[in-house]
Every structure is written in C-alpha cells, then in structure tokens.
Specification:
By secondary structure, the protein is an alpha/beta fold. The protein is built from eight helices and seven strands.
C-alpha cells in the first residue's frame, strides 16, 4: 500500500478549506485543515505534512508570519509552503518567497495547475531527502559529488556531534577469536554471559 502525501491547507474561510479538501482528496492526497496560522503551527508540532497550502490574509497572524515561523523552527523548516492567495501584486509575491515559500498561486486558480505545482514540490521534497550511500563502504556522496565518511558528512551537513561505539554483533565478529574477549563473554558460575 502506497502512503498518501499529507497536505495541510490553511485558510480562515471554511468554504475554501472545503473546496481544497475535496480537490486534494479526490486526487489521492490526505488532507489536514487549519483555520488560522496558530492552528497550523500547533499542527506541525506533532505532524509533518509533505506540503502546506497557506493563505496570506488571515486574522491574528498572516500567512507570511506563519511561514517565517515555520522556517525558523528546525523540525518544520523542510516542509514546502505554497502560498494560495488573492494577493497578486509583485511585492506580495516577492514577500512570499522572502518569507520562505516555494511557490505562489493567486486566486482564482485553475485546479489542474495547482495540482501540478503540488505534485512538483512534493517530488522535489522527496528527491532532496534522498541520501546517496555506498552499499559497500557506507560512504555518503555530498552535493558536490565527493564521497565522505558518514561522520564527516553529518558533521558538515547537520548540527550534531556523533559518538562512536561498537554493537554486540560487531564485537562478536571482530573479537570472537581473542581469549580476552572470550573471557568477558563467558558466564561466571550461575550467571548469563553479557557485555
């Protein structure tokens, strides 16, 4: 069974949410809805949609502010945001891209065009999340085509520090012929053998 892509639609008008929900679900997507920016941000704290359709003009918090907050938070910043709005001035469109949007669709829109853009951005997100790794030596190819050790790759591409250890299966493979290891793994009288 193929997992359906989850799209979060955010609009303060229930009729817009209803229309988008029907369009998306009829085209094979799973749909979540939020009627405000606050609801949308709350949703992405627990779920990670594959894409967000975001209206700009909403009370309390407009779409630009929502997008900026999403992009500022590490776990949700990778989620592509398509602005779907009636605001069509060039300055509004530029503001949408500056806020972190990947696309900007003005209302009224053609359903086929919106669906094509959604499909494209979900495919791009999937391709960006692929990590080429050698099936033999486990080195990772970076975006410049160079092959790096796993720890070096992650130290330069992610805000983390790796620690190293050896799992029990590798310990057995590496050291099972050594007397010191055999002594460590042999049970004392009445005990089970553990490391």
């Amino acid at each position: 069974m193929v997992n359906k892509s989850l799209i979060l639609t955010v609009d303060d008008k229930p009729q817009n949410l209803q229309f988008l929900g029907k369009l998306l679900s009829n085209n094979g997507y799973e749909v979540a809805m939020a009627q405000s920016g606050v609801q949308a941000l709350k949703f992405v704290r627990t779920e990670f949609p594959d894409l967000i359709l975001l209206d700009v003009m909403m009370p309390e918090m407009d779409g630009y502010e929502v997008c900026e907050e999403l992009k500022a938070g590490l776990p949700a910043r990778h989620i592509p945001v398509i602005f779907l709005t009636a605001k069509s001035d060039a300055q509004d469109i530029i503001k949408g891209f500056e806020a972190g949007g990947v696309d900007y669709v003005t209302k009224p829109f053609h359903s086929a065009e919106l669906l094509a853009r959604i499909k494209t951005h979900i495919e791009l997100k999937t391709l960006r999340s692929l990590l080429p790794i050698c099936s033999h030596c486990k080195k990772i190819r970076d975006d410049k085509g160079f092959w790096n050790d796993v720890d070096r790759y992650f130290e330069t591409h992610a805000p983390l520090t790796l620690t190293h250890g050896t799992c029990p299966a590798c310990m057995d493979k590496l050291y099972k012929g050594h007397d010191w290891y055999k002594k460590r793994t042999q049970p004392a009288s009445g005990e089970e053998g553990t490391l």
